[in-house]
Amino acid sequence: MSDEEKEQMTEAEAFERVVKILTPHVRNTDALKSVKNETNILDDLKVNSARLVDVVLAFEDDFDIEIPDEDVDSVNTVGDCVNLIVGKAS
Amino acid sequence: MIGNDVVDLTDPEAQSGATHPRFDGRVFARSELQMLGASGAPNRLRWMLWAAKEAAYKAVKKMDPRAVFSPSKFVVKLDETLRGEVSCEGRTLQVALCEEATSVHAIATSDVLPESRILSGTHEIEGEVLDPDLPSEAAREFAIRELASALHVPSNSLAIAKRGRVPTLLHDGESTGIDLSLSHHGRVVGFACDIGPPENPHS
Lengths: 90, 203
What we know:
The structure holds two protein chains of two kinds.
Chain A: H1 3-8, H2 11-22, H3 29-33, H4 49-63, H5 69-73, H6 78-89
Helix pairs in contact in A: 2-6
Chain B: E1 2-8, H1 23-27, H2 30-38, H3 42-63, E2 75-78, E3 83-88, E4 91-99, E5 103-109, E6 118-124, H4 134-151, E7 158-163, E8 166-171, E9 174-185, E10 188-194
Antiparallel strand pairs in B: 1-5, 2-3, 3-4, 4-5, 6-10, 7-8, 8-9, 9-10
Helix pairs in contact in B: 2-3
């Protein structure tokens, strides 16, 4: 991802990419049909904690950012992911 | 405080190569990476170490709600009997791993407790898990069944409520104060609890 792309990334684009990365790890596929910023990753999507590590690593790869564990700990919802990523990528 | 975690080794997520290529580097300390490198069964060991870290974190989180799960900082040391310690930023917890053919179960305690005080177990859900809420319900039901038997009370007098993410055992609607931890992964559910000293198991 280039610096220019980072600058141009909107929350909507980040949301779409976040959901795409989460999708293979989601156990509650019904919840994906109505996924929104408020959707809880562990409780609603049923992504397990080990998979969350894979998700974070995929975010780092896809958005070319670094996400420390302290930041991961404060992420509960899809919207939290989007805000974290947009904040780091800007 | 007590924490537990279970990993279903038959689950596709737990198969060798299923994790991100940087997973091990992210979650394991150097000493653990060395253990994995020297192991004849690295995938099984990977999930034992992971379960130990998760179990320890659950116990720490009860003591310190501000605790952060930084897996590589929860450093696991195991002996040949699969007992040992998990160290994290000045805290040391006791850990014991139970190995089954298709799962691993870790139990971590903040204090050294006699085995007689710890009630724990795992159970495999029969059939395919189609309802995503089924594993957590099955974990609660299994724990209640086992606890009712151990405490000599009817199953229907016990219930498990949640305070935040922490399960609380209720007896006739009242908090028992029994320290309880639930877990599930794939088709396997588990629990661990400190039932207290023998003379006063309900306190």
